């Protein structure tokens, strides 16, 4: 009987060890899928991943004894890649929406929203999405605000007898900005921090036309449904790292805002 109990204990230990190992793609690492065209969140600098999300994940990984591995892919490929086992998490300033929570789990880590970019000196300077009616608006594909703009076009523009919003969708955010510069679109909607980065890079060619944060939202890591080990590890790492001076310095460096308890309560959607 004693030998049988020992065997059971060994088997249980082996299964526990295998379960922990299987939760992550590689032992000692956390592999993240990121779209490296989304400055200042994630981008390539001197052939190396850089940006807030990249530095943030490196800090988180360190607190749980892992090394962050970054895999570059385009934004529309992130969720399919996560579901297909290409990476442990998505780390690409992904907005948390009820639709996404139907197919993946998400761990919030940042508060964000959108801004509107327009050409400097142009007569068209939209302050809110309601001013998009009858205009061609550029956006990166697979973003959460596309559905919101389509709804706005139908429920606001058309019902008021105005022309609908003409959405032009591009693969990356820089391609969208290029469309704005070439006047292929009248304005661009993008993440507020990305908009600030575009203005910094392009100087006096573009401006932020909006004067308030549009569609406030939470950014989050994506985790494959059912992978509780990775999700729990992320949550524990976030709790530890957010109490460090390194985290405070990182937020200050990028002028980002951590979500408050009230933000988490009001902005975190429920999976439908």
Describe this structure in words.
α2 (52-63) packs antiparallel against α9 (245-254). The chain folds into two domains: 27-112 and 217-258, Periplasmic binding protein-like II (D-Maltodextrin-Binding Protein, domain 2, 3-Layer(aba) Sandwich); 113-215, 3-Layer(aba) Sandwich (D-Maltodextrin-Binding Protein, domain 2), CATH 3.40.190.10. β3 and β4 form a beta hairpin. With 272 residues, the protein is α/β, with parallel strands linked by helices. The strands form two sheets. Strands 1, 5, 6, 7, 8, 9, 10, 11 and 12 form a nine-stranded mixed beta sheet that branches. The protein has ten helices and twelve strands. The model is unreliable at 1-21 (pLDDT under 50).
Question: What is the count of β-strands?
Answer: 12
From the coordinates shown, what is the CATH architecture of the largest domain?
A: 3-Layer(aba) Sandwich
Domain unit count: 2
Shape designation: globular
Sketch the topology as an H/E string, one letter per element.
HEEEEHEHEHEEHEHEHEEHHH
Tell me the span between the first and last alpha carbons: 50 Å
**What's the pLDDT, averaged over the residues?**
92
């Amino acid at each position: 009987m004693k030998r049988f109990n020992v065997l059971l204990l060994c088997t249980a230990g082996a299964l526990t060890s295998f379960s922990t190992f299987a939760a992550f793609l590689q032992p000692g690492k956390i592999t993240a899928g990121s779209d490296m065209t989304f400055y200042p969140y994630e981008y390539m600098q001197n052939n190396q991943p850089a940006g807030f999300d990249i530095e943030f994940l490196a800090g988180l990984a360190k607190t749980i004894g892992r090394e962050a591995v970054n895999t570059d892919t385009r934004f529309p490929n992130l969720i399919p890649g996560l579901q297909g086992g290409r990476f442990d998490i998505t780390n690409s300033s992904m907005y948390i929406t009820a639709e996404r929570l139907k197919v993946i789990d998400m761990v919030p880590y940042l508060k964000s929203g959108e801004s509107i970019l327009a050409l400097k000196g142009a007569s068209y300077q939209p302050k809110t999405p309601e001013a998009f009616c009858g205009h061609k608006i550029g956006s990166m594909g697979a973003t959460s605000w596309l559905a919101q703009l389509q709804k706005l076009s139908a429920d606001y523009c058309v019902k008021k007898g105005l022309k609908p919003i003409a959405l032009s969708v591009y693969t990356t955010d820089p391609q969208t900005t290029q469309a704005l510069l070439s006047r292929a679109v009248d304005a661009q909607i993008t993440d507020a921090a990305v908009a600030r980065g575009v203005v910094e890079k392009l100087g006096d060619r573009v401006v932020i036309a909006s004067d308030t944060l549009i569609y406030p939202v939470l950014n989050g890591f994506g985790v494959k449904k059912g992978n509780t080990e990775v999700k729990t590890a992320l949550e524990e790492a976030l709790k530890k790292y957010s109490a460090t001076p390194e985290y405070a310095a990182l937020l200050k460096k990028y002028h980002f805002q951590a979500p408050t308890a009230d933000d988490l309560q009001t902005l975190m959607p429920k999976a439908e």
